[in-house]
Amino acid sequence: MKNFLLVILSLLAFVGSTAPTGHAQDKQCKFMAKGGRVQMSDKSKSCIFVLRELEAVFAERVKAVKNRDAEAQVAQVSPDYSATLPNGQTLNYEQIVGYIRQGPQQIISVLDLSITIESLTVRGNEAIVDARQQNYSRTQRLRDGNIHNVVTGVLQRETWVRTAEGWKLKRVDNLREQKFLVDGKPFNPGTP
User: Fold this and answer.
1) What is the pTM of this model?
2) φ, ψ at 111 (rounded to 5°)
């Protein structure tokens, strides 16, 4: 009996040492460019499932922006949100929520916006994507007090976390390929 218990305890110790630790291995989903578009070529179930979920989240995000619904946008942000801008400035949850809530006061109408996922890595309950915001075209009141036609675009890395309430945006960084036009002319938002 004593030997039997030792065998059982040894097996339990072995199984416990080989069990997953909660840090799933990264799954880099494969994408390819085709006809000027980027699309996922990976056929693994985890990639397809997460991509479809995030595409639905992004569709809701676009709808909220077009409807100037700040609270629907805020609902997609994780309380531990952070962002690092190209100039090194960081934003936290309170700052991004304040920024989002100012939008409806400044944006008169949204003419167009699309968001495309260009890469996806699944890491447990997190998904890291390269998201391209294209042709965010709108009429907007700027600091000069006048209404202008504004078009912006960016490719940025976004980290999303799956929660009981759905996917939440946790982090934004690596902003690149930025475009900012005001009335059809390049504009630097950092200038007064």
Assistant:
1) 0.82
2) -90, -40
CA distances from 144 to 141, 187, 191 (A): 8, 13, 12
31-46, pLDDT tens digit by residue? 776 766 777 787 888 8
CB within 8 A of 63, min separation 6: which ones? 69, 72
Query: In whole angstroms, what is the distance from residue 118 CA to residue 130 CA?
Result: 5
Beta bridge partners of 136: 152
Residue 129 near residue 54 (C-beta atoms within 8 A): yes
Residue 53, helix vs strand vs coil: helix
> How buried is 187 (Cβ within 10 angstroms: 0-12 exposed, 13-18 middle, 19+ buried)?
middle
Q: What is the Cα–Cα distance from 186 to 192, expressed in whole angstroms?
A: 14
Once rounded to an integer, what is the mean pLDDT over residues 44-72? 94
Ordered domains of the chain (ranges, CATH):
27-186 (3.10.450.50)
Q: Is 81 in contact with 96 (CB distance < 8 Å)?
A: yes
Secondary structure of residue 164 in the 3-state scheme: coil
